[in-house]
Amino acid sequence: MQPLLDAILHGGPMARRRAMAKAITLLESTRADHRAQADALLTALLPHTGKAFRLGISGVPGVGKSTFIEALGLYLIAQGHRVAVLAIDPSSSVSGGSILGDKTRMEKLSVHEMAYIRPSPSSGTLGGVAEKTREAMLVCEAAGYDVVIVETVGVGQSETAVAGMTDMFVLLQLPNAGDDLQAIKKGVMELADLVVINKADLDPKAATRAQAQITSSLRLLGLHGNPEHAHHDDTLWHPKVIQISALRGQGIDTFWAEVSEFRRLQTANGRLAARRQQQALAWMWERIDAGLKQAFRQHPQVRRLLPAMEADVAQGRVPASTAARILLAAQFGKAPETIE
Ligand SMILES: Nc1nc2c(ncn2[C@@H]2O[C@H](COP(=O)(O)OP(=O)(O)OP(=O)(O)O)[C@@H](O)[C@H]2O)c(=O)[nH]1
Ligand SMILES: [Mg+2]
């Protein structure tokens, strides 16, 4: 374990990247002995994490995420940053993982020694995939990557998962997005700290229209959703909309200026730290919930009772709350009436 740790923390570019890949593979393993090693490794790495800026990026297939991340990554490397790119793609066990094919779209970034690109873990549930990605993020940070990008295509609840593990959540949109604001997935707009209209080169007029429309809908969301936004307050960040062309590399500097301003404000007003604390606690509870549920389903007594109980509840023979109490009591070996 020590050599792996040393290579991640102090290795040269090649050794470091190899050690990172090895560590992340260990984290993704489902073997119990691997999990014990992975937990020890993460705990040892933890003091070296937290210094990176964590950037979440989402947008529908084809909006230009890979093209954008390639342009942004190279721009940041030119400024002396080290860039890691991770992905959450809950469907990747089926599709084989789009970011792999993406390496061809991130042609220069993927081979750059100051970059590290890792496809989405391909295991089952979104919660499980998100957990692995959070842990991989810590490995990248300990290895000295100071910008960590987490991308998702936004299947199911994956935007929420990405927003829940990053400092800033960016939503990429097409120039025609403003024409049908209803089509933008409900709830996702609320998560966005910054909306980026890509492919502005294709239709500059539409992009400008979309920028105005989304700006006003964000303002409305702010007024209704967050009372603080009702008053203009210079110490708070107000979600913005910008236009870029990832393909032509236009607007990348503007984008990074907005990110830097966001980071400055959120650091000064304490929200960056507060967001991370909330995220860490929410992650712990999310994993406890998932772990308890799994243990519950595997309990022999529960397994014996469950099929009949489910049928009884579905058919209206037993109240759902009574069934839950009976099953919980079975797991804890108690009488049902002692369960709250
Ligand atoms: N004209 C124009 N085309 C772009 C721009 N950005 C990306 N594209 C093109 O749009 C297509 C899709 O881009 P990708 O970067 O692969 O999009 P993606 O969001 O990563 O797509 P998935 O990985 O499938 O989710 C490619 O053909 C790009 O060349 C842009 O700013 N302008
Ligand atoms: Mg892509």
Task: Explain briefly what this protein structure is.
The protein has 340 residues and is an alpha/beta fold. The chain has 2 domains: 222 residues, P-loop containing nucleotide triphosphate hydrolases (Rossmann fold); 40 residues, no CATH class. The protein has 15 helices and 7 strands.
Report on this structure:
There is one protein chain. With 340 residues, the protein is an alpha/beta fold. The chain has two domains: 222 residues, P-loop containing nucleotide triphosphate hydrolases (Rossmann fold, 3-Layer(aba) Sandwich); 40 residues, no CATH class. It is 56% helix and 10% strand. The chain has a seven-stranded parallel beta sheet with strand order 3-2-4-1-5-6-7, sandwiched between helices. α10 links the parallel β5 and β6. It is globular and about 65 Å long. The mean pLDDT is 90. Bound molecules: guanosine-5'-triphosphate and magnesium ion. It holds the Pfam family MeaB. Keywords: Kinase, Transferase. Belongs to the SIMIBI class G3E GTPase family. ArgK/MeaB subfamily. This is LAO/AO transport system kinase.
Radius of gyration: 23 Å
* Spatial sequence of strands, sheet with the most strands: 3-2-4-1-5-6-7
Number of strands: 7
Which molecules other than protein and nucleic acid are bound?
A: guanosine-5'-triphosphate, magnesium ion
Count the helices. How many?
15
What portion of residues belong to β-strands? 5-15%
* Measured distance between first and last alpha carbons: 45 Å
Which outline best applies? globular
Secondary-structure element series:
HHHEHEHHHEHEHEHEHEHHHH
Instruction: Count up the domains.
Output: 2
Classified by CATH, the class of the largest domain is Alpha Beta
- Uncertain runs: none
The biggest sheet, with number of strands, parallel, antiparallel or mixed sense and barrel status, is: 7 strands, parallel
| CATH H-level superfamily title of the largest domain | P-loop containing nucleotide triphosphate hydrolases
Write the CATH architecture name of the largest domain: 3-Layer(aba) Sandwich
Q: Helix/strand-derived class?
A: alpha/beta
Q: Write down the overall mean pLDDT.
A: 90
Question: What percentage of residues falls in helices of 4 or more residues?
Answer: 55-70%
Enter the CATH topology name of the largest domain.
Rossmann fold
